[in-house]
Specification:
This is Peptidase M20. The protein is of the alpha/beta class and 452 residues long. The chain contains 15 helices and 20 strands. A six-stranded mixed beta sheet has the order 1-2-6-3-7-18. Strands 8, 9, 16, 17 and 19 form a five-stranded mixed beta sheet that branches. A four-stranded antiparallel beta sheet has the order 12-14-10-15. The longest helix has 20 residues.
């Protein structure tokens, strides 16, 4: 599928700026090794420091731990509207060279696609933010609010050396901040030539748990009626065989209704009326089997991800443990959820440890920023369906939503339907032309919101 016709639908104030510069910056940024662990995000900070110094922009940088760099710069506005933060993370997930067609730390362009670790998550977004920020500075745009560019460490491991650390240790940065644009969302060119663009407004809350079962140890040749391992297995089976009841949040209801017209015909009625559809057990089964991402948005879930017991095959261990990646819907009570887990375990020799729990992570779509973004996007594209979306995963936005900051996941990179970014996978990629257009749209969205 060609991208050619998209280009004629997009007219921006930024087209006079050479597209080569952002792409060259992205290529350089991608080839800076910031794989987490260990992170080494200070390497990325050095990259931004050079650019800001060349542009004559003041910035601040700090390490939350050795090598764990964070950087931010502020353009001060003449007005007193709540400030806007442009946030992305510097770190990327590991990549195994043997499973890639190219070196993941070498940016390679092939057949119109740019391949490297971090192309989609989130170095391309970081360059889009950078170009919008530099555009405002370069053109002396009068601002109705402060605009903050921010690149942080450690998002891929929870953000505790990055966004979370800055909020705790440098809270003054965020005084007066009302809005934030971050990763999340996405855009797809559908087969009917309509662009479907999702703006992330909500995320499920991670509630990571460790279950620890204890019982009498012994020799593997003399099995007892119970053991730590068998207790744990039985409890895990009860959790998996007793799913939580479906529950539709307002965001998911609106999301599915907006997605329905572009879905295959057999899915359209259910997506248009999801509250009724979830009453059918067969629909729930098919939804989980064929569209597990959608299924995960309609109920609380737990995935068993780590198991540990004896270190020796002939030893019955006194202890066995499992770690669960549970995700709860943003409007659900964590206390009620953990009570439901205890009811399913139903074994007083199994202890529950809380590893991590985030607060509710949802922002209203009824804001000036969301309406402005929608208007600018609709003016730029001949046919576009804008979808307020929810995520099963989480981003650093939850830190800022906890502060009452309206946070949206907005990534204007358009992928053809059926061609994915391979985010966190092998051969991560981004269409070069879509990146260039994303830069232009990001500039226009930011300028429209912050210009006096």
């Amino acid at each position: 599928m060609s991208f050619v016709f998209i280009a004629f639908a997009l007219v921006t104030a930024s087209t006079a700026y050479s597209q080569n510069v952002p792409l060259e910056r992205l290529i350089e940024y991608l080839e800076i090794d910031t794989i987490n662990p260990p992170g080494n995000e200070s390497r990325g900070v050095t990259f931004f420091q050079r650019i800001f110094e060349e542009a004559g922009i003041d910035y601040e940088a700090v390490e939350s731990a050795p090598g764990r760099g964070n950087i931010w710069a502020r353009l001060e506005g003449e007005g007193d509207e709540p400030a806007l933060v442009l946030l992305h993370h510097i770190d990327v997930v590991p990549a195994s060279r043997e499973y890639w067609d190219t070196d993941p730390l070498q940016a390679v362009i092939s057949d119109g696609m740019l391949y490297a670790r971090g192309t989609s998550d989130t170095k391309s977004l970081g360059i889009m933010h950078l170009e919008a920020f530099l555009y405002l500075h370069r053109n002396n745009i009068a601002l109705n609010r402060d605009v903050i560019f921010m690149a942080t460490a450690d998002e891929e491991a929870g953000g505790f050396f990055g966004a979370g650390w800055l909020i705790e240790n440098r809270p003054e940065i965020f005084e007066g901040v009302g809005y934030l644009l971050n990763e999340g969302g996405g855009a797809t060119l559908m087969e009917n030539d309509q662009i479907q663009l999702a703006i992330e407004v909500a995320q499920k809350r991670p509630y990571w748990l460790r279950l620890i079962a204890t019982d009498v140890p012994g020799h593997g040749s003399v099995p007892r009626t119970t053991s730590a391992t068998t207790r744990l297995i039985a409890a895990l089976n009860r959790i998996q065989q007793t799913p939580f009841e479906p529950h539709i949040t307002a965001t998911v209801r609106a999301m599915f209704a907006r997605l329905a017209p572009n879905m295959p015909p057999q899915w359209q009625p259910a997506m248009s009326n999801i509250d009724e559809a979830i009453l059918d057990p067969e629909f729930l089964r098919v939804l989980q089997e064929e569209r597990p991402g959608f299924h995960s948005l309609i109920r609380n879930t737990c995935s068993i991800t780590i198991l540990s017991a004896s270190e020796k095959i002939n030893v019955v261990s006194p202890e066995a443990s499992a770690e669960l990646d549970c995700r709860i819907l943003p409007d659900q009570d964590a206390g009620e959820f953990i009570s439901g887990i205890r009811d399913r375990i139903a074994d007083d020799q199994i202890e529950i440890e809380e590893i991590m729990l985030f607060g509710p992570a949802e922002s209203s779509a009824d804001t000036d920023l969301y309406r402005m973004m929608s208007r600018v996007i609709e003016e730029r594209y001949a046919s576009v369906n804008i979808v307020p979306s929810a995520m099963t995963g989480f981003t650093d936005s939850h830190f800022f939503r906890d502060l009452g900051i309206i946070s949206y996941g907005f990534n204007p990179t358009i992928f053809p339907d059926g061609i994915g970014s391979n985010i966190h996978g092998n051969n991560e990629r981004i269409p070069v032309e879509a990146f260039n257009q994303g830069v232009e749209l990001m500039i226009d969205v930011v300028r429209e919101f912050v210009e006096e």
